[in-house]
Every structure is written in C-alpha cells, then in structure tokens.
Write a structure and sequence with these properties.
This protein has about 600 residues and is of the alpha+beta class. A hairpin with a 5-residue loop joins strand 18 (about 305-310) and strand 19. About 35% of the residues lie in helices and about 30% in strands. The longest helix is centred in the last third of the chain and has 47 residues, at about 555-600. The protein is globular. The protein folds into four domains: about 5-135 and about 495-595, no CATH class; about 145-255 and about 455-460, PDZ domain (Pdz3 Domain, Roll), CATH 2.30.42.10; about 260-325 and about 445-455, Pdz3 Domain (Roll); about 335-440, Pdz3 Domain (Roll).
C-alpha cells in the first residue's frame, strides 16, 4: 500500500474520496473564512470556488454568488473585486472594481487573514478530538529512549540489503558513541519529547563540520550522567527516481521483544517458548529492540543462548535455546560489469506468471531485480521486471531460461557481454555490458529461532496546543531550510496534491491518522498562505500595507503586473513539484515490484523440520 503507483492512485476511488472530503474540505474551510469575513464587512462577493480555471459545476445562490467547483484542484478562491485585482487568475469580473465602494485597510487585513484563521481553528478542533481519542503511533515513539543503534546503515538499494548488495556506511549513531538505552534530551539544542522529533531534528538539521560533512549534536542521559555526542548523519536515498535523500542518524526506538506463535519444530518451539512471551535479556544483556535481538542472534550464529523471559502475571523464567542457521534467500545470479565504476546486475529466476502462488510452477524466465549501485546509463533499459532473453555466448547467441544457462553463457574471464532483453509490453532490445563476469550470489545465512515478533501499537494523548505549535514550528523550519545551504532539504521534496492523495490513501485504515494528517494540512495551508507573496493572502496584506503607508508606489497597474508575475512563478513551482512527485510515484511503483519479486522468488520460506 505504501508504494501505490500513480496509475493506481488515479483509479482509486478511496484515495479520490478521501482527498475530496479532507483536502477539499480544508480548502473549503480556508475559503469559508474569507467568505464569512467579506460578508460581515460588507464586501462585494462574486464567486466562491474550490479549484482554479474553468467551472466544472456549481450554482448561483439567492445572494447572487456563483458557487462552483473548478477544473484545476490546486486550491480555491473567493472572488472579491474590492480586495485585489485578480482577473487573470480568478476570471473576469461582472463589475468594474473602480465603480464599487472603496474598502478600508482594516477590511482588507481582516478578510485576508481569516482564511488562515479558519484553518487554524479547524486544525485545533481536530487536534482536540485526537487528544481525547488518542493518536496511534509506532511502538516506542512516545519515548526518546534509544532501543537499537546499528553498526551499518543502508544508504541506497535497501531492497538488496538481504542479498548483501545494498550500499552501506558505518552507522552514524554507533560510530559517534550512541548506545542502546541512552535517553535523548535534545538534538542541536532543540528539546525532544518523542522519538519522531529526534528523527525530524536530524532530517531538518543544517549544521556542518569544517570539512562540510553534516553534523547533529545529541544531548543524552546515560547512567544518570548527561553527555554531549556529535553525530555525522548519513544521507539515505528514499527514492531513486526523484533523487530524494534525507539525513539519518541510524537509530531505532525502544520496543518490547514479544514473540508470536513459534514455527513447528523450530528452536523456539523446542525450547518451550509461547506466543506472548516477552524476552527481557539474552545471555544477561538487556534487550531494548526486536531488531537488536535479531542482530545479536545473527552475529552469534548457532551457539546456545540463555533467554530471560517474562510470562503471564509477571512470572520470569530462564530458557536455554540454540538458534538454527538457515539460508534465507534462494539463488540469484550477479553480472558484475564496468571498469572505473563497477556495478552488479542482479538476475533471478521467476515463474511465467508473476502472480502465481504455486510453488511447483516451472521457473522458465530470468528477470532483472536491480543494479547496485544505481547505474544511470542503464537504469531505464535494464529496469526491474525486464526479461533477460538471450546472451551472446563464447561461440553463439544462447537463449537463457535458468541461472545455469546464464552462468554457462557468461563463464570465463571478464569480457564484453551482450544481453538481449524484452518486456511484457513487447519492447525489446540489446545492451552490451563492458568487462562483465557472471557469478552465483552467495547464500545468506542467518541464525534464527523460528518465530515472528509482535509489535504493540501505542496511543499518544498529545495536548492540542503542543501538537499545533510543533507542526507550525516544523513548517517554518522546513521553509527556512529550503534557502539554507547547510541543509539537505530541497524544493523538489515538497509535496503536491499527488503525494497528499497518496498519503490519505495510505492512512485510510485508521480515521485518527487521517485526522492527524488533516491537522498538518490545515496548519501548512495557514502558514503558506500568510507568506508575503503576491497572489497569496499574505501578499494581499503586504500590498495593502504598502499602499496605505506610501503614495503612488503601487498603483492598480503595478499590482496587476505583480499578480500575473507571481502567479506565473507559483504555477511553475507547482509544476516542478508535481513533476518530481510523478517521478517519486514511479520510483515507489518500481520499489513495490522489487519487493514483490523478493518476497515471491528470493526470500526463502523456512522449514525447521528439514534440519536435525
């Protein structure tokens, strides 16, 4: 669901309905603020429009106002000819503004600001509902206690990490000295009260060292002492198509390690572990996170372990268990190629029908899973899902239907290897990989006990004042970082209506999450609309203020030129953001396909009964 494609998004009635109700409702609330204020102040109101451009549908009320929904869903407006000349944006006026009574400076300021005021009131009301009902958050999010600090962090091609092919760097937090159990008090002098604020403070950070590397200063409490630790965050790729990268410190929150139903004949089952058991420690080392527990097992291999387990009514027991080494992935082939910049093309065998769930189906095609690291020159040609049809062998072109076929065709020393590819839509072609060599991917073995782990969702009851103040502060910080050279936040990472629609769809399973996102949207609308930019409400207020305290500096003609100019700039900015949002959706769709291929054809189902 998180990787919903752009096409799926457009065809999703659920996504469209949620956007119409909540995002459209937020725009309606904003314009309602202008409308009611204008009516109260006695201004002429011509139109009340949700969206810009030509009218889709609507009606004319008894008050003479044209209520409409317009074709471009990028906002809305209330046509007030006495407030500002907006003919190029809102359409022609039925009356000349010069013939209407002049309105006061106070009228202009009140009507302009009330849209944002209504958004704030609406957001605060929703935040009050969440204060009463509780907001679902990930386990450990309500605390600032660190549960796990990985030694390595995957910075790109995260989907290939299980194959040992993801791009990794030393874990920033671990390298700096942060450890499991530390309580974070502040990041870059900003006090933090929950784990999300830690991640956000690192992501929005703008500090750098003398070499230009990003830094974040953590203030933590450990064993009753306060320490200051400087971390150099890693830049992690979120989407290969849009190029989105964010700063991360590589930290996980504190979570309980609670096991689910053990697999038959697994070490967990043989040791007498039961669903609901909470593992407190392993070999005397306290556990603070499920991932931490898995990593300890992986590193330790198949050696006996002593677990301290808490059961019903707080009863504790020591359990001896010996993890079992299992190969966790099926075979894949890797075509290593390139000279100055080596790349690995990962190829896996798949069934003729990708949707089949029959494990006995004949595997008779080779498909591209990905390239690590990303190769811009071949990213589109050999993208995920492309079928490898033939390869030029030593003596002749050979059809390849299995890993053995591919390895036979590419056997020997490095050489130029021509691959003939095709796709389900009929596209076909060939590409030559320079200095290529085919090898079988190494089996990945993990020590496992044969159980899944249970997560406990939490409810956060956050004061509405704190919720709203935090979002507004974050919005201003993000806007400031767009113009800060020390930051990694870029304009292309801003969200358009596409990302908003996708987010509403992804949150739709829980109305409380939908309400929280609507709080965020309304407060963002309030802040953005009050920016002193012509066309926006803040621009109207700025122009009105300049006109009041100066004479002749901004006449009507100059105002119109400003409105046209900034509307063009604003539309260009929206187009730029939407373009990157489309790329982001394309990257998410590709990532979703990669994950499907991994789950259906690479990740191996464990059978603990097969080993003695």
């Amino acid at each position: 669901m998180d990787n919903l494609s752009f096409g799926d998004l457009l065809s999703s009635l659920k996504g469209i309905a949620l956007v119409a109700i909540f995002f459209g409702g937020s725009i309606f609330v904003h314009e309602l603020g202008h409308f009611l204020a204008a009516r109260k102040r006695g201004l002429k109101i011509e139109r009340f429009s949700i969206g810009f451009g030509p009218r889709l549908f609507g009606w004319t009320g008894k008050d003479g106002v044209d209520y409409r929904v317009s074709i471009i869903p990028l906002g809305g407006y209330v046509a007030l000819p006495q407030l500002a000349e907006m003919e190029g944006i809102e359409g022609a006026s039925s009356e000349e503004a010069e013939k209407l009574p002049k309105i006061s400076y106070t009228d202009k300021m009140i009507v302009s600001v009330m849209g944002a005021v209504f958004n704030v009131i609406f957001a605060f009301g929703l935040a009050c509902i969440l204060w009463v009902s509780g907001m679902p958050v990930a386990e450990g999010s309500s605390s600032t206690v660190i549960g796990y600090v990985p030694e390595q962090v995957v910075t790109s091609a995260g989907h290939l990490a299980e194959l040992g092919l993801g791009q990794t760097v030393p874990g920033p937090g671990f390298k700096a000295g942060l450890r499991s159990g530390d309580k974070v008090l502040a990041v870059d002098d900003n006090t933090v009260t929950n784990f999300n604020q830690i991640s956000e403070a690192v992501m929005l950070g703008n500090r750098k060292d003398s070499q230009g590397n990003p830094t974040a200063t953590f203030q933590v409490e450990r064993d009753g002492k306060t320490l200051e630790i400087v971390v150099q965050p890693a830049r992690v790729e979120l989407n290969s198509h849009s190029g989105d990268r964010v700063r991360v410190a590589g930290l996980q929150p504190h979570t309980d390690v609670i096991i689910g139903e053990p697999t038959k004949d697994s070490p967990a089952s043989k040791a007498g572990l039961h669903a609901g058991d909470r593992i407190l420690s392993i070999d005397g080392t306290p556990l603070n996170n499920t991932i931490e527990f898995r990593e300890i097992l992986r590193k330790g291999g198949a050696k006996p372990r002593i677990l301290l387990v808490e059961r019903e009514a707080g009863v504790t027991a020591k359990v001896s268990i010996t993890p079992q080494l299992n190969t966790t992935v099926n075979p894949v082939s890797i075509i290593a190629y390139g000279d100055k910049t080596p790349h690995s093309l990962i190829v896996l065998p798949v069934t003729r029908d990708l949707l089949t769930k029959d494990p006995a189906a004949v595997r008779d095609q080779l498909m591209v899973l990905g390239i690590s690291p990303e190769d811009p020159a071949l990213a589109d040609i050999l993208r995920v899902g492309t079928i490898i049809d033939k390869v030029d062998g030593r003596e002749q072109i050979m059809a390849v239907r299995s890993l053995e076929d591919l390895e036979k065709a590419g056997a020997g020393d490095k050489r130029d290897l021509t691959i003939y590819w095709k796709r389900a839509n009929g596209d076909a072609g060939n590409v030559t990989l320079r200095k290529a060599q085919v090898r079988r991917g190494k089996p990945v073995e993990h020590a496992q006990i044969g159980t899944f782990f249970i997560t406990k969702p939490e409810l956060a009851y956050r004061n509405p004042w704190e919720t709203c103040a935090g979002i507004v502060k974050s919005t201003f910080t993000t806007l400031g970082r767009l113009f800060d050279r020390g930051s990694d936040i870029q304009v292309k990472q801003l969200a358009s209506v596409i990302s908003i629609t996708k987010t509403y769809y992804n949150l739709s399973e829980d109305i409380r999450r939908v309400l929280w996102f609507t709080v965020l949207i309304n407060l963002n609308l309030a802040v953005l609309n009050l920016l002193p930019i012509p066309v926006l409400d803040g621009g109207h207020m700025l122009i009105a203020t300049i006109q009041r305290f100066t004479k002749g500096v901004l006449n009507n003609k100059a105002v119109i030129i400003l409105q046209y100019t900034f509307m063009g700039l604003l539309l260009s900015l929206m187009a730029y953001i939407i373009l990157h949002d489309v790329r982001r959706c394309s990257g998410d769709s590709e990532l979703h396909l990669k994950q499907q291929l991994l789950e259906r054809h690479v990740f191996k189902q464990q059978d603990f009964g097969a080993k003695k």
